Amino acid sequence: MTQRLSCDSLWLGADLVTLRDGRYQIIHDGALAVAEGKIAWAGPQAQLPAYNADTTTHFDGGIITPGFIDCHTHLMFGGDRSDEFEQRLNGVSYADIAANGGGILSTVRATRAATEQQLVESARQRLALLLAEGVTTVEIKSGYGLDIDSEVKMLRAIRQLAAQVPAQVVATCLAAHAVPPEYAGRADAWITTLSDQLLPQVAREQLADAVDAFCEHLAFSPAQVKTLFNTATQLGLPVKLHAEQLSALGGSALAARYHALSADHLEYLTEEDVQAMAASGTVAVLLPGAFYLPRETQRPPVELLRQYGVPMAIASDANPGTSPALSLRLMLNMACTLFRLTPEEALAGVTYHAAKALGQQASHGSLEVGKVADFVHWPIARPAELTYWLGGQLPCTTVYRGSVRHGTV
Ligand SMILES: [Zn+2]
């Protein structure tokens, strides 16, 4: 006698795109059962065992995917930089904008001036747009405070937002985003300050889930990142890295040596870097928005990443300068058109592999028994439509931890 399935809710009438191990793996006419916020059964409806369900939802076709995961954002910041966007299009150079106090330092000033509550509210409005497109997990980085108090303020604001919205919010400490103006020419001293003061506080107060840095000529060297990673590792904090965006410094290989969750951007990644990432299981997070807006021409080496089996995630990199992106689905399209990913790879990049980039592949990112019941119903015929339609908003029903998410946040 087969055991009777007992669940809180049952979802029928749609195809399941499971994304197990990052593959489409479509189950036609599927059934999904949820108990206590987790997936209790997933498979063809024809094989569904006898069951008790408190509620049953019948969809009229369509597909169900795992909830989308945006694994790299800078969604929290003061002000915006639309004025600089306009100035550049009117012929003002980056150098002149920077000389007039523009660029990242203008965001740092606005973020320092904002209260914790103001940061929560402005980030909430931007987050609402991401969530409307089926995002159930989002990572948000600090990195616009660039002094101890302002970085702590940002991280507390991210934690506060996390407690208020129907989505999982993961916090990352990116205090090594840029050299603070007060430390101009003394990047080593800022790294020492972070290692001695900020990171111990972050670990003690559990303000962040990981530590990130920007490894580039205009930010921090591999040696400085190494110092930061040593401290993070000693404190038990996982690491990740903005690497190889504008030049090849070997940051990705360094990150791989520290078993980083991910290395992100990667336009100038070398084959040696790819091999190191493959060996350590480090996810390659590709950010097509930050390639598109500044009209970059060097593409990340997708062929090499495929060849060595490095998992590829896609994220919005939502930030006020290089990628003011508020649509993860648009990033899926850009990953296909600009970076030549297949629709299957792109979809895996915002589900299974994005979960891995956050160290959560055991609990999130695919429709499998035992995983958190975060999923989305889309009234479309084929998963490739998620990467195909350009702009607009596809209607969808988002289920977060087993319950339908209604309204805005
Ligand atoms: Zn970034």
From TrEMBL:
Claim: Cell inner membrane is one of the keywords in the record: no
Residues the record lists as binding 4-imidazolone-5-propanoate: 81, 144, 177, 245, 322
UniProt-annotated binding residues for N-formimidoyl-L-glutamate: 144, 319, 321
GO terms for MF: imidazolonepropionase activity
Cofactor info, note text: Binds 1 zinc or iron ion per subunit.
Residues reported in the UniProt entry to bind Zn(2+): 72, 74, 242, 317
Positions contributing to Fe(3+) binding: 72, 74, 242, 317
Principal localisation: cytoplasm
Residue intervals of the Amidohydrolase-related domain: 63-378
Keyword annotations from UniProtKB, A to Z: Cytoplasm, Histidine metabolism, Hydrolase, Iron, Metal-binding, Zinc
InterPro entries: Amidohydro-rel (IPR006680), HutI (IPR005920), Metal-dep_hydrolase_composite (IPR011059), Metal_Hydrolase (IPR032466)
Main function: Catalyzes the hydrolytic cleavage of the carbon-nitrogen bond in imidazolone-5-propanoate to yield N-formimidoyl-L-glutamate. It is the third step in the universal histidine degradation pathway.
PANTHER family, A to Z: IMIDAZOLONEPROPIONASE, IMIDAZOLONEPROPIONASE-RELATED
Family matches, as NCBIfam families: hutI
The protein, known as: Imidazolonepropionase
Lineage, broadest ranks: Bacteria, Pseudomonadati, Pseudomonadota, Gammaproteobacteria, Enterobacterales
Gene: hutI
